[in-house]
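> example.struct
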């Protein structure tokens, strides 16, 4: 496996994306501090322009990490910079806590047929869904839901961002940014994993995923919990997709569960097109001794 993936795996095992000590945020104080942000990100967390990301319901850990990077130079955007340069860590924690209390309203995925691409006979929404749920095994692309969650909530404790309802234009811009080889922060930054993934995606697949995520509904945690209790919990995860139950949208997942979920998901990335799955199997000891579900590598086995 590449050095980058190895470092990434080691980070997940060490406890997910969150490596920094964020101050505890106060959402009420944050509501006032977030007013300057709201012109672009929306008073209710839904941004009015498709190039600007909605932040409603985004995990506070993720918003904190990104905003600190905008302030300190790990992520660069000319529009953002003047608004964040003067913020303290505490300001950012408060603002992040505020946005986490809001909700992003899902849009509608483009279900029109993809035309003019040889070998593709599908709509954008269907193609996007297939990749989001099952990856592209032949190209070594893992299922997006392994880290961003079946309903697009992300895995807050592990710092994986929510993507449900996010503007397609913004999603495509991010995926193209990663596809071009760029990432945030230094060479060990968590976002480097998306470079590996996005570089294996074709342009039409990026467009399909971008619009699918805009239409993806992030059920609120309480509703998910009720659903899970009412049905069999595993019913929330499509049968074709072998996911650790910890990946299902369970509310208030603690950091340890989230790290487990990430660790279970991570070896999938290592499924290089020509690789046997063995390496992935041994790369990460399966800590989930209660796992009764099929090996998660099977779903992405390129089928040698
Ligand atoms: C003038 C418009 C504007 C204002 C005001 C603004 N932002 Fe942004 N923000 C953007 C744009 C544009 C992006 C996308 C940047 C990129 O493409 O990397 C962004 C991205 C972000 C992201 C990353 C979201 C993600 O999903 O990765 C965070 C977090 C964020 N802004 C927080 C803030 C905070 C906090 C404030 C207020 C202190 C703020 N922004 C004010 C325009 C703005
Ligand atoms: C192994 C975990 C993992 C998998 C699998 C994964 N992602 Fe990501 N994704 C991440 C991480 C980590 C980040 C960046 C987090 C950060 O910068 O703090 C990210 C960021 C993103 C972003 C930017 C979000 C934002 O608000 O700016 C998008 C869009 C995205 N991923 C889409 C996808 C798609 C589409 C797939 C499937 C083809 C996918 N991801 C698969 C871990 C993953």
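> example.seq
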């Amino acid at each position: 496996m590449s050095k980058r993936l190895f470092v990434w795996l080691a980070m997940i095992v060490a406890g997910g994306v969150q490596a920094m000590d964020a101050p505890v945020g106060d959402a009420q104080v944050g509501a006032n501090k977030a007013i300057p942000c709201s012109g672009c990100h929306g008073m209710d967390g839904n941004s009015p322009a498709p190039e600007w990301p909605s932040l409603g319901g985004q995990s506070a850990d993720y918003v904190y990490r990104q905003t600190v990077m905008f302030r300190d130079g790990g992520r660069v955007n000319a529009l953002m910079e003047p608004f964040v340069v003067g913020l303290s860590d505490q300001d950012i924690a408060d603002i992040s806590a505020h946005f986490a209390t809001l909700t992003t309203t899902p849009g509608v995925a483009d279900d029109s047929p993809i035309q003019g691409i040889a070998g593709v006979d599908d709509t954008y929404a269907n193609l996007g869904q297939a990749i989001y749920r099952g990856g592209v095994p032949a190209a070594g692309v893992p299922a997006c839901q392994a880290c961003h969650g079946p309903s697009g909530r992300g895995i807050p404790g592990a710092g994986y961002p929510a993507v449900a309802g996010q503007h397609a234009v913004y999603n495509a811009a991010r995926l193209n940014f990663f596809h071009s080889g760029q990432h945030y922060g230094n060479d060990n930054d968590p976002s480097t994993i998306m470079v590996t993934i996005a570089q294996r995606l074709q342009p039409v697949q990026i467009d399909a995923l971008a619009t699918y995520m805009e239409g993806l509904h992030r059920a609120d945690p309480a509703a998910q919990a009720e659903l899970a209790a009412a049905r069999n919990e595993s019913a929330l995860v499509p049968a074709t997709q072998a996911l650790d139950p910890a990946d299902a949208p369970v509310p208030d997942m603690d950091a340890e569960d989230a790290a487990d979920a990430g660790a279970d998901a991570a070896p999938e990335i290592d499924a290089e097109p020509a690789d046997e799955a063995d390496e992935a199997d041994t790369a990460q000891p399966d800590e989930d001794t209660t796992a009764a579900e099929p090996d998660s590598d099977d779903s992405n086995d390129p089928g040698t």
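> remarks
Residues 8 and 190 are 7 Å apart (CA to CA).
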